[in-house]
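[Automated response] Your request has been received and processed.

Submitted sequence:
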Amino acid sequence: MMKAQVRIALVGDYNPQAVAHQAIPVALQLTTAHLDIDVQPQWLPTETLTSPDALQDFDAIWVVPGSPYRHDDGAFMAIRHARENDVPFLGSCGGFQYAIVEYARNVMGWHDAGHAETDSGGRLVIAPLSCSLVEKTGDIVFQPDTRVAQAYGSLNAHEGYHCNFGVNPDFV
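Generated structure:
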């Protein structure tokens, strides 16, 4: 019997020095083994995303960490494509932040919504954190009987962070 095949677009600008980029293939290999599926990831640099057609053959889209992206429009287009076409989407770190901006602009109609890392005016829905989390570590406590607790096989974990931005409290 053939394994189910899942093609995932990894939208972002690959950097072999980025810890998150090093971890993504490992995480996907663990997923492949755990779920007994054939996960086929493909990195799509943001500057190559000039049309949603580039995303048609993918089952899911992951906008990976590593912002600001070389071509913000490519990242925003991938996020919008996923939202409008019900394509499973994961945005981690910068990908999540860009998804918030995309939603504010295109669903809420806040055309001036922006990200403080790349924009200087408008409604900065993504703002600098009051306390930087770059190169910080901390404990995470999971709720019992949740998917994340099941995935970790534990109710807690100690993880590293590398982030300076988050949702602006004024817009929560």
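Summary generated for your ticket: The CA atoms of residues 140 and 157 lie 5 Å apart. The longest strand covers residues 5-11.
If you did not submit this request, please reply to this message.
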